[in-house]
Design a protein that fits this description.
The protein is an alpha+beta fold and 526 residues long. The protein contains 18 helices and 19 strands. It has a seven-stranded antiparallel sheet. It has a seven-stranded antiparallel sheet with strand order 7-4-3-11-10-2-19. Strands 14-15-16 form a three-stranded mixed sheet. Helix 5 packs antiparallel against helix 8, helix 12 packs across helix 13 and helix 12 packs across helix 15. The protein is globular. About 1% of the residues have low confidence.
């Protein structure tokens, strides 16, 4: 229960439908689609695409997405992998020969084929009720007429607008400066691209003039991308993976995402009596940080394109979790695992929608770094992600850059189930933090009995790169205790992640939404 003398958000409760997104306009559009006869899949697509102009630093048509769908009238969860593949002409050995040890985050080498548009078309065709063209109309209007910049978006603009290069600066900046709160952002070129997609479906993006514009742009920058690479981009249906946490099933997508790392982390934490600890005390932070180091070390070693990964069973194993848990000293921090070679980012949108028939959609959509690669295709207006920076150039590694491969992804949607019934679609944004964020959210709910909004509102910590980063909500005494345990404690350089969730209460027939205050968004219902 919220402390109403301590300012914060209330849970949102409704009966008919609910949307939780990271921007109010997206939540509003999702609810409008539901009220107009669309289902959760239609509403999720409408909201997600709109976020490309509401939060352009986080997401857009030049990115990737992943989706979990629980259809109406059943409890089986279906997965959609909407991440694109590397161009057929890429060559890791050639990059190593040029002296590269990692992929340049702002080069054509870092740009894999964007998979999100194909994923939206598939989600619409397989699960939607309305046509894709109808669902895209609200976004087209906003892309053309503009959206005022919200506070968190302005914060990110100030920090990251230097990532924009060339024509991208003309399209996303104002007088070559970062947009500020209330400045209007219009993206008419992308509106025209969306109109083409509305008319032609995924072919309006992956073939014809839009694809030609993207390929010409990338080839001019030294990319090996071809029209055939775009034409053959294909979203895959995938079977979710799951793991038990104290009677709750955490449902995630399989690799190339890091969902298995979230499951492994929860399994490690299940060996500790977290409920006996202060939820915001040093001991809980320490145990979580040590478990995160171990789970992420496994992630960095094994997770890759599903066609190249052979250790998924190992990561999901109870025995693996037990052995790793035994390595944790409750009194002393261990040295961090080997540094990941993939790039780190914090820029993603996550949203969830549940409709009156209790179809639930959990969707995450990203251009990787803030403003992605910073490279835009000038005619179509597409700002490219740089997801290929998630590959390694280490020879022989399962996540080594290769033709037609998918890189290891950090973005992961999730659902939580109990006794065979989905009780909550949820997700935690924040790049590399996301697996740790899933574990923090789940343990807040299960071990500490928090409601979803309280579970989001509390301060976060994240162990990465040999440091333990803390948000400002932790006390000086907690920081001193963590340093005494051997942690290199640092102030987080910004808010850690963001999150959304919708709880489904089948017995009472209500939906309860929560939205992270670290973002501009909200949960809305009707």
């Amino acid at each position: 229960m919220s402390d109403f003398q301590n300012a914060g958000r209330s849970l949102v409760v409704a009966k008919n439908g609910m949307a939780a997104t990271s921007h109010p306009l997206a939540s509003q559009v999702a609810i409008s689609v539901l009220r107009d006869g669309g289902n959760a899949a239609d509403a999720a697509i409408a909201a997600a695409v709109l976020l490309g102009v509401c939060e352009p630093q986080m997401t857009g048509l030049g990115g990737d997405c992943f989706v979990l769908v629980k259809p109406a009238g059943e409890e089986r969860v279906h997965g959609i992998n909407g991440s694109g593949r590397a161009a057929a002409g890429v060559n890791a050995a050639a990059l190593r020969a040029k002296g590269h040890s990692v992929i340049d985050e702002h080069s054509a080498d870092a740009i894999t084929i964007p998979g999100a548009v194909d994923a939206f078309a598939k989600l619409s065709a397989d699960w939607g009720r309305k046509s894709l063209g109808d669902v895209l109309q609200p976004a087209i209007k906003y892309f053309r007429e503009g959206v005022p910049v919200a506070p968190r978006v302005a914060f990110d603009y100030e920090a990251s607008s230097d990532n924009l290069k060339g024509a991208a600066r003309d399209k996303f900046l104002k007088d070559d400066r970062a947009l500020q709160v209330g400045d209007d952002l219009r993206l008419p070129d992308q509106a025209a691209t969306l109109e083409r997609i509305a008319e032609e479906g995924r072919d309006g993006f992956y073939t014809g003039s839009v694809a030609e514009d993207m390929v010409e742009t990338l080839q001019a920058l030294g990319g090996t991308h071809t029209l055939e690479d775009f034409r053959t981009c294909k979203t895959d249906d995938v079977e979710p993976v799951s793991g038990d946490y104290k009677g709750h099933d955490l449902i995630e997508l399989p690799p190339n995402g890091q969902g298995a790392a979230a499951i492994l982390l929860c399994k490690i934490l299940s060996h500790f009596d977290l409920a006996s600890l202060d939820p915001y005390g040093a001991d809980r932070v320490h145990i979580e940080a040590e478990a995160t180091k171990l789970a992420y070390d496994a992630r960095n070693r094994f997770i890759s394109d599903a066609d190249h990964m052979t250790r998924l069973d190992h990561m999901l194993s109870d025995e693996t979790a037990s052995r790793l848990a035994a390595l944790i000293d409750p009194h002393m921090a261990m040295e961090g695992p080997a540094a990941a070679s993939e790039a780190v980012h914090r820029d993603t949108i996550y949203l969830t929608v549940v409709d009156k028939d209790r179809m639930a959609v959990s969707l995450i959509y990203s251009i990787f770094h803030s403003f992605g690669s910073g490279i835009v295709a000038p005619k179509s207006g597409i700002l490219f992600h740089n997801r290929g920076a998630g590959f390694t150039l280490e020879e022989g590694h399962p996540n080594e850059l290769g033709p037609g491969k998918r890189p290891m992804h950090t973005i992961i949607p999730a659902m939580l189930a109990r006794e065979g019934r989905v009780m909550m679609p949820f997700g935690v944004m924040g790049g590399q933090y996301q697996a740790a964020g899933h574990a923090r959210f789940v343990t807040n709910l299960v071990d500490f009995g928090m409601d979803a909004q309280t579970a989001m509102d509390g301060p976060r910590a994240f162990a990465e790169a040999g440091e333990l980063r803390l948000e400002r909500g932790y006390s000086a005494d907690v920081r001193k205790a963590l340093m005494a345990k051997g942690h290199k404690v640092m102030d987080a350089d910004g808010p850690i992640g963001g999150s959304q969730s919708i709880q489904i209460d089948n017995e009472r027939g209500i939906l309860t939404g929560a939205s992270d205050p670290r973002k501009d968004g909200c949960a809305l219902g009707y």
